[in-house]
Amino acid sequence: MSETKVIEVAGLTKKFGDFKAVDNISFEVEKGEIFGFLGANGAGKTTAMRMLTGLSKPSSGKGKVAGFDVLKESERIKERIGYMSQKFSLYEDLTVKENIRFYGGIYGLSRQQIQTKTSHILEELNLDQVGTKLVKSLPLGWKQRLAFAVSMVHEPEIVFLDEPTGGVDPMVRRQFWEAIYQAAELGRTIFVTTHYMDEAEYCDRISIMVAGKIKALDSPDKLKDQFEAGSMDEVFLKLAR
Fold first, then answer.
1. Where in this chain does the record put each ABC transporter domain (predicted)?
2. How would you class 129 by CB atoms within 10 Å of its CB: exposed for 0-12, middle for 13-18, buried for 19 or more?
3. Are the beta carbons of 173 and 196 closer than 8 angstroms?
């Protein structure tokens, strides 16, 4: 595996009976890149991400994440990545501090490391005043930012974000992307799925999935030039025809 490539996929396929949810996709992701995985709901984005994160076995094809085989070394992959699901992966009936401590323990952090991380996250997110409040009492935008911070509590090389901005207003979405940029500046690779085409503009490169296949892959500017489009929405509409 190349030192600069943290994800390598060749011919990855996932079948459910005769249906191919992910159909022979191939791509690579560079270290420190913000890589967008775009497509409409049902295009196969989440299924592909589940294979890359070790949560689902491919039907065929090959893939490596952080140097480990997606078919044979899924547990090693889970140790090296962060993952934030559409539902934010937080426990609503635990407090903010308890959620941070819980995930720190899952990822094998020491008691001292957990204490340090808890203080840092609360300060970084300006959540000091609500550290003892139940997560279910927080506004959606705060839950989103907390879930992102928790996904990186063990300082992973790669962070997978599955539709992280679904259901939040445009201002909160922009604030969340600022947090993504900050993580990328620290050298982390961000792999994000979304069906918001405007969010493609925030990525270094994007792939666009249609019916389980990758129909286009490049930087937003190059894709707009290639398809003679003024926006990513126009690119997507041309690909979806």
1. 7-236
2. exposed
3. yes
